## 1
Amino acid sequence: MRVGVLEGFLSRRYLGFWEAYLKALEVEVVRAQVVPDLRQPYCLPVQGLLAQVEALKAQGVDYLLLPDLQGGVESERGGGACPWLLDLEATLHRYFPGLPPVLKVPAELSDKTLGRAAEVGHLLTQNPMVVGRALDRVRGLLKPLPPLKTPQGSVGVVAQPYLLEDESFRKAVEEALAREGLIPYFPDLPPEKLREEGDRLLPMDLPTDRELVGMVHYLHRLGRVKGLLLVVSYACPPIPGLLRKAARKLSKPHRLVVLGEDWGGAVKELKRELQGA
């Protein structure tokens, strides 16, 4: 039995547990090391996702492990207008005929994860004893990881959660700001705390939207943060529109930039505004 897994799209939050659990079930875990096809008309994170799915399909995996990014919440607002964020499985089926059977799992760990793990284990092994032993071995991995450490900078960085948990994205942001002598400050609160922050600024339905708006509220109220860089993975709605709506409530300098485009001018303008503040 071979199960393909994906890196990115919140994999830092759930994959450590599930990879260990699958191995405890004596299931082969397959990762795809690929280079995204930049000719595809999608944002960079989706290009990377599609490249992995295509490679895993070619490798002949029996199942594909996919995260439920929104925990079953549905909405037509904000990120709900983006099919990749609202229902990853349904959207992939639309673009990949013949997709391997999907094992949808929560993108965040909680006590409820064990119930889904038991269901997946029974499906893959048909052996309750094996499932029970495997669950006992991985229970200790159910604790969510702490937020990544952040440089103690003065420019707060807001972006979709799946971007902020990507080390290569953080490095790109640090390099872009360093060219102007600026240092980033990435949100350093757990997801549930950021969602609480978001509810204070602009109540939203989807967990990822609440978290995104929460970053704006949290970073804006920090005295250390003098300005904000709002990063989106693509220029079309809905996420840029959501951030612009949240940004109208800000009094600190801010700029919105698009991943993959040249941020030089926007960062220079932000620096000038920070120096004039």
## 2
Amino acid sequence: MSTENELKELVKQKYSEIALQAKEDNQASCCGSSCCSTEVYNIMSDDYTQLEGYNADADLGLGCGLPTAFAGIKKGDVVIDLGSGAGNDAFIARAETGKTGKVIGIDFTPAMIDKARQNAEKLAFHNVEFRQGDIEAMPVTANAADVIVSNCVLNLVPNKAGVFKEIFRVLKPGGHFSISDIVLEGELPVGIQSAAEMYAGCVSGAIQKQDYMGLIDAAGFTGILIQKQKAIIIPDDILSSYLSLEQMAAFKTSRTGIYSITVYAEKPADAEACCAPGCCS
């Protein structure tokens, strides 16, 4: 069984490759994994092109929702985008927060950070910055953000509980998040669970929906709400790379469901300014 560090290195390697792939390849796959489909285009991602702030150079087709559309970002807000990739969600958040706000994108893949910074420079956005770092230990001080967004990223992180604790630490009291992610109902076939490509592709790293929501509650958030949910259908030409015909048939008739959800939750307004010794340093 792979360790957390091994899984992280797998994701970093794959997303370094994805940074150089065409958007069309990423959208025809599961979150950009190399198992592209010739049957179905745009397996997970929603259409960003009509949103203010959209920039085609920053859209790698890796998302599974539109968290910025549900995030309630206001002018002047400080927004953090977790797993910011080439900057797509960060630039859309910037259109919402305006020149008086600030957007910080965090990604642990150097190739993605480089691409995002190049895009920000081309757009002459001086209130959008990208920091390389692990979202389980964000390079951000406590109580810094009004809003946190993320798009199809937490399912790639082995320690999801740690990420939600970090989100709680970094949000201001009364702040909130809107996160799009992949969750499960029922158990995936072993062939998919153990496939490295499908881990980097957001599917086998997903956890049960009930457990995911439980982690948010355990981290101390209130007002937890699923803003949107849609089923994810993996095409046969991808499934056949991991499952036999018999296994595929059994999977399709099982009660297992793969879903994209967009989740909202708030840090209580009366939460202590410093949630742990040394957290404000």
## 3
Amino acid sequence: MKKNNGLAGGPDGLIYTARLPLSSATLNWLADLIRGHLKKIGSRWRALPAGKIAAIVLAVLRCDQRPGDLAGGNGIHRTTVTRWVREVVGLLDGPLIRTRRRTGTQNRRNYSGKHKHHGLLVIALTDDRGRLLWVSAARPGRTSEITACRHDRLTARLRAAGLGAIADLGFVGLDDSGPDADPAVITGYKAARNRPLTRGQKLSNKALAAVRAPVEHGFAHLKNWRVLGKVRTDPKWATALVRALLVLANREVSR
């Protein structure tokens, strides 16, 4: 925390500074990206320099700081901060995300019976080290994982690339290939009401859980961006937001 012994009060309220839990390499990389974009579009003036804009955007994405609070502390308008965030997310665009409750048909579409709250569903793939490789488009919370994967033709694309995936029990039944074909998606075994798991099935589930451990680390890196705690903007923008965070998360992890 930076010490400031000057006067903190004022007609517009108190102002504080805080430390972002990110590396300076990520900040500098994002600032260079913004400078390149401004040069490309021929923008000669912004209210703040690129480095400051990058810090404000990262504060919104990483710590879920309110644009209005950051705007007041930097002498700019709230809509300016929101515009900068969307602009940077557009430059970077290459589990269930909670959203605010909506009314009418939107309320029903985004409610997840599995998680018992409103949100958006995103499917992600990682490599064996837990590095995020791909995320799907954000869909209404009531969509099941299997339905989302089938809509993206995930198994066909994995098989065409000669790849396979190890998934949790929520994806049982996704791979409906024939008995002679190599499975594109491997899952564990589910116990039925009158059919408990055998010892071999339990050992298989345990082995798969050990292999999937790095995957959970990959999702954890994505969830560290607190803006995903509850998306306060239009859910249609969530796909671009998640894909931008995938880029930033990989940059931060690989530094």
